[in-house]
Structures are given as C-alpha cells and as structure tokens.
Design goal:
mainly alpha; elongated
Length: 83
Amino acid sequence: MMKWIVAAVLIWIAWRVFAKPKVKDPAVAARRLLGVGARADAADIRAAHRRLMSDAHPDRGGSGEEARRLNAARDMLLARIGE
C-alpha cells in the first residue's frame, strides 16, 4: 500500500514541476503567438503579424484557423496600446 502512495506522490510532483503553466492574461498569449516582447510597439506587432501571415494565410496553403488566431492576437495587442 505504501508503494502506491509513494508512486502517486511522485507522479503528482512530476506533473506539478513539468506541466506547462496556463497563461491567464490573453495579452501574454497573444504576444507569445506573435513572438513579440512586452514593450513591442505597433510597428513591431504589425511586422511580426505580416511575417507570420505570409506562411499562415489560407491563400498560400496555411490554415484559416491559424490566420484567425494571428489576426485576433494582432487586433487585441494593437487595441491595448491604443492603435
């Protein structure tokens, strides 16, 4: 019985240590998706969006869902900085 408890505790510890943390702030997730830093200005956001959309655009063989996520991330970040 004790071995099962030890195994369960070790699995729980490994899960807590190695599990990917969830992002609570949508702006952080948007910055990660676009690959820009916290101090990125409108030009940086637009340049990153343009670079990523060149591969993700549905007309160029990309996914429509990925293009929508990139557009939403760009729009949210630009709205947050007042552009």
